Amino acid sequence: MSATRYRRFLKLCEEWPRDELKKAGDLGTFLRQRVASAFREGENTQISDPEKCDQMYESLARINENYYRQRFPRVKDTSFTGVTVEECKLLLSGNVQQLDEEKKGLWKKLSERFSKSPEDVPEKAPEK
């Protein structure tokens, strides 16, 4: 039975996309490393908790198939910051040097917004 689990995880690794923009923080690369360490002996690996293994596979398969994205569609493809998907990917890739002058302004605004200490924020007057 562990041979079947191993093959299922291998197929999932093949289907899981790699993000070449991210150097070390890519989920696809991390998944491949974890599968390799969990199944060191390949199909002959003895699994200590088969139920947990199956549950983990099913969860990862749902993420890979965009199950939650289809079940809970977004109205807009932006976040609360107003950053688009492309800008967010660029910021998360670690290649901030590639940002042009316009996007550097956006990065500066976002970093200032989230780096404010509580002392910088004016206190509200108590309501009567």
Automatic annotation (TrEMBL):
Subcellular location field: Mitochondrion matrix, Mitochondrion nucleoid
Superkingdom classification of source: Eukaryota
Record's keyword terms, sorted: Mitochondrion, Mitochondrion nucleoid, Transit peptide
GO CC annotation: mitochondrial nucleoid
BP GO terms, sorted: mitochondrial respiratory chain complex III assembly
Pfam families, per database record: UQCC2_CBP6 (PF20180)
Keyword Mitochondrion: yes
Keyword Transport assigned: no
PANTHER family: UBIQUINOL-CYTOCHROME-C REDUCTASE COMPLEX ASSEMBLY FACTOR 2
Name this polypeptide is given: Mitochondrial nucleoid factor 1
Species in which this protein is naturally found: Eleginops maclovinus
